[in-house]
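Usage

Read records sequentially. Each one opens with the input sequence:
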Amino acid sequence: MKLITRETDYAVRALMCLANNQGMVMPVEKIVREIKLPHAFARRLIQVLAREGIVRSVKGKNGGCELAKNLDKIKLVDIMAIFQGDVCLNECLFKKNICPNRSTCPLRKKIRAIESLVLKELRSITLATLMH
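and closes with the structure output:
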């Protein structure tokens, strides 16, 4: 189980890079150099973040992107949802079907309690808290 995927990790790094240059339109090439990831991959991440309203794309000679939201409004859990779906520690699958013991499973109850705690913590993490 991977809590944070590579896409989410790089998206957060790109957002932190933009946050360090807040108030400036930043070319994707500069983000690529600073966080060391493939150009096509960075461009795709930025496009997804722009479509979701997290960043704003600026076209033209001095184009690039900038944050579209305040740092304290960009939550890690939202970035995770964009790139990897909702956080789920146990899907209760058995041979690709929903487990027949799902409603009575004592392990599932414990894991759901842990999942609730993890989600609470993840919801408290914003780009602002990561910058400090």
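Summary fields computed downstream for this record:
- The longest strand covers residues 55-58.
- The chain has a mean pLDDT of 88.
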